[in-house]
Structures are given as structure tokens and as C-alpha cells.
Amino acid sequence: MQASKLRSSSPFQFTSGHLFYFLWLCATATALLGWLGIPVACFILLIWVQILAGARREAGATSGKGEFVSTVAVDVASPSTSQPIARSYGTRYGVTKIETLVVLLIATLLIGLFVPAVSEYDPMRQAETSMKMVAKAVAAYEQQHGRLPSFTVTDELGQPQHSWRALILPYLREDKLSAAYRWDQAWNSPANVELMQYRPWHYRTYYPDHEEQRELSSLQLLLDAEQNWFVIEHEQASRPWLEPTEDISWMELEELPSDDHGFWRHGFFSSSYRGRLVVSNQQTIQIHPRSDSSSPALLPLGQRVALCARTRAATVELGEPYRQIHWGNVLRLAMFLVAVLYPLRWLSAIRDDAAPPG
Question: The domain containing residue 178 runs over which residues?
Fold first, then answer.
């Protein structure tokens, strides 16, 4: 047997184009994932280096093409001619195991990034439960006194002194808190201010930026066009729970809140606004933003709520759900995927060079 010549060189060489690609990959990964994108980009680059180096080795093993890694041709004696036959290993076409691993890695990363974790906690349903308890307390007050609690209790000069939330404390089974409240002093007197920290559970807010402010409440009473009362939640009504709050109009309930207020279901590609809650002791109405506020065919919200109250349905939805598409995230994802898959162009060029002519 006669050994063939060995031909070898560096399996992979970095160029300015590779450096530019690395910066592009890091930029798109950082835009999509934040600082976590830097190690992700480095890992993806390492995988591609291995794939391209392997493709170079396979290309070098092709007969007549020994650009990079050693080609070993073994002379084997033929039984018929007793002449050595050169045997070489050509390029393997198709998907290699490491390329399959890259695809699975990227798919797993995207699934873990974009599929939200399942959570049993639903702030909207929790808010509805609390608001129903407050509505029952208001109904109990109305039944005992023959009238609704005053939205704001004023003094002889018309200055606001107490809130309806303080009036219904006994009906929320907050007897100790009600007994400690000083009715002969204003809500912001030193004695009453000390009670702020003991806010009843059902008066809590449901907005992330108010989680640390435990004395706040975003609940308010509101009357519809037929003087039916409802407990509502609104970020503009968020005040210390003992403070008399200004009235919220029905028109304000149809306004779209900011992303950090209200009951949103946030996603990567889109976010949907779930509406505002309007609760009585017998009914829950979910109000979505008005789709066409200029349409004369739509009745004012207070009248529509009054019509819903007549139906006595347990749950009613008004308006159309609002969905917001995050085009910026879609663009960042597209740029990231283009950057991740761009080396396929280099891989295809290597295999085209290694392919046998004709």
C-alpha cells in the first residue's frame, strides 16, 4: 500500500465579515433579550463555528479539494487488478446532528421566551371577588338605613370629612377598625391617619405601581342613569382609603388606561385589555373601551349600564375587547432570527464548493 499525501490547514479563519456578523448578532440578541442576549449570542456563535468547521473538514475530505483539514486516501489492492484504488471520504449532504441540535436549541429558546408561564392567580377575578364583598356591605347599609351611604360626609361648611368606605366598615366585619375611627375628627386627623395602615383587604388596589402603598384604594361608588348604584375600580380614584374621593364619570370608565394600570394580559407579540369592572350586589359588568366614541348610535355608558341592570344577568360585557400589537417586538424577533440563520449562507457556499462538478 502507498499512503497518500496529507494536506491540512486551519479549520476556520475569522475575517472582518465574521466580526461584523458577531456584532450584528449581539446587537439583535440584546435588543430582544436584554443583557441576557450577550451570552446567548456567544453560544450561538460557538455552535456556528463548530458547524462551519465541520463543513470545512468534510469539504477537505472530498477528492481533489483539500483546502483545510487533512485528507487521507488509503490505497487498497484490488483483487482483480492488484492495483491500488484510492478511497476518499466525500462531503456528507443533509442535516447533521449538530445542526439539528442548533434548531432544537433555538426552538426551545423561543418557546420558553414567548409562551407565558401558567399562573393560577388572576387579579381581575380577585378584584371581582373583593368588589362583590364591598357591594354586599353597601347593600346591607342601604337595607338597614333605607338609603345609600353618603359618598362624602361633609361638615357644616361643606368641607369633606369622611368617605363612604368608613361608613360601611361595620358591614365588612371590620368592627374594631370602625370602633377606633374618630367620627368627631376629619379623616386626616392624627388619630385617623394612624388607621391608614390597617386598610381592609377588600379595599386594596390592583395596580403594580401601588403595591407598596398599602394605604391606597381604587374603589368608588357610582350611580347609573336610573340611580342604580355600582362599585367601580379606576386608577384615578386611587387615594388613601379613608380620604373622600372625587366622583368618577361614566365616560372615564371607557377610557383606555396605560399599560401599568388596569387589567391587562401582556404578551410578547400582543397585549389585550380586559376591561374595567362595575359590580353591584347582584351583577358584574365588564366595560371595554368604546370602539367608536363618535358614533351617535351608541347610548351613553350610564344608560347602557342601566339597561344591563334591567336584564339581571349575572355577568355582562359592554364594548369590544382591545388588543395592542407589539410591532417593535415582532421586528426585533425577525432581525434576531435573520442574524441567527445568516451563517446558512456560508454553509451553503462551502458545500457548493465541495460538490463534485457536473
Answer: 123-325
Question: What H or E segment, with its residue span, contains residue 167?
Answer: helix 164-167
Residues 108 and 186 in one domain: no
User: Cβ atoms within 10 A of the Cβ of 97, count?
Assistant: 6
282 lies in the same domain as 158? yes
CA distance 11 to 320: 60
Secondary structure element (H or E) that encloses residue 273, with its range: strand 270-273
Q: Cell 387589567, residue? A: 263
Using one digit for the tens of pLDDT, what is the confidence trace for 66-106? 444 333 344 444 444 444 444 444 444 444 556 666 666 77
Q: Do 58 and 183 belong together in one domain?
A: no
Q: At 186, phi and psi to the nearest 5?
A: -70, 165
Cell of 43: 453560544
Q: Kindly state whether residues 65 and 111 are assigned to the same domain.
A: yes
Q: Which amino acid makes up residue 356?
A: P
Question: Please, which residues have CB within 8 angstroms of residue 267's CB and are 6 or more apart in sequence?
Answer: 114, 116, 326
- Residue 3 has a CB neighbour count (10 Å cut-off) of 9
Residues 157 and 291 in one domain: yes
CA angle 93-98-100, nearest 5°?
Answer: 80
Is this model's pTM higher than 0.85 or not? no
Question: Distance between CA 63 and CA 88 in Å, rounded?
Answer: 6
Tell me the residue type at 205.
T
